[in-house]
Design goal:
The protein has six helices and seven strands. The protein is of the alpha+beta class and 176 residues long.
Length: 176
């Protein structure tokens, strides 16, 4: 198992992984595609076994207005047949040790039982626009005491609007 930075030749394989890992939802792969199409700053790593992408993790900017205040973790994905083997945990531990990540406030919307094992704590401020009561919104190294709603790259909102209208586009291409 090798962990490496996502490079252009592995983008289709990472997208395919997201497609399989989150099926039947198309949200994550559409977001991934939009972020890459628009060259957004994304810190991302993959886990390879024999040139197959078996896990992916990405981080995008977190905002307070126009100011970058940290990073959003997500998605974290593992091929369904390889889940529950520690691959996602190892990839997350690796990512949290990387300089750009270990020096940033990290926010995540996800399973508290999983993320608390890595030092994430419930986040009261800022507020998540996707979790009204912040029940599943957590953070690590968050110095903020100010009340505000955390911002995401605009692609999150665009894809969420499509998702909420229940008009997720069908698969448009085959990925390997």
């Amino acid at each position: 198992m090798k962990i490496r930075t996502l490079t252009p030749e592995y983008i289709p394989k990472a997208a395919s992984l997201l497609d399989h890992a989150f099926a039947p939802s198309r949200y994550e792969v559409l977001l991934f595609d939009k972020l890459h199409e628009r060259n957004r700053a994304v810190h991302e790593w993959i886990c390879l076994i024999r040139d197959s992408v078996v896990a992916y993790i990405g981080f995008t900017n977190a905002y307070n207005g126009e100011e970058v205040v940290g990073l959003h973790l997500g998605p974290l994905a593992v091929q369904p047949q390889m889940q529950r083997q520690g691959i996602g945990s190892e990839l997350l531990r690796f990512a949290l040790r990387q300089e750009v990540i270990r020096e940033s406030t990290i926010f995540v919307l996800g399973n508290a039982n999983f993320y608390q094992k890595f030092g994430f704590e419930p986040c009261n401020v800022p507020r998540s626009p996707f979790d009204k009561e912040n029940k599943n919104f957590m953070c690590i190294r968050n110095p903020s005491c100010n009340e505000y709603t955390i911002g995401y790259e605009k692609e999150f909102k665009e894809i969420t609007l499509v998702k909420n209208r229940n008009k997720m586009p069908p698969k448009k291409r085959s990925r390997s």
